[in-house]
Amino acid sequence: MIHIVIDGYNYINRTKNAGIHGGTALEGLRRALLEKLAGYKKNRGARITVVFDAYNSFSQGRQRENFKGIDVIYSKEGETADDVIIGFIGTKRAGMTVVTSDRAIIDEAKRHGVPFITPGRMEEMMAGSYEDTSEDDGGEIRKTDKKGNPRRLPKRLRRISKTINKI
Description:
CATH architecture: 3-Layer(aba) Sandwich
Strand content: 15-25%
CATH class: Alpha Beta
Structural class: alpha/beta
């Protein structure tokens, strides 16, 4: 089963709602994102985890809630959503795909061979406008000094592409 791990505030800031911050507006954006993801989950059947920063909160532990089948995690005091997601990547769970545009998380995902996509691309996929272009979704440069078919992606990248296409 596909497990999509989403950097919540990064997603909100990188999509059409960019730059909106503050109390009730932020709560509304969180709920709108979770509603959209609940619809996507219902259609695709993927397991979805959304991680939000609670960096300045006074909670000594991570807060969890279930929103229409979506696992929502709020980081604990002194911890960022990036820390939580990097921890997930370190466990390298089967079928996991990370949705973020945060460079530190992307670098960690590359290092562990975990597929990732950007929030904009996830938006396109949820809207149904995504087409597979067989491009390198791993963000790595292909080496040309290898033997074999130069038009075919390396096996590891084909596996990553296949996993992303299941989303």
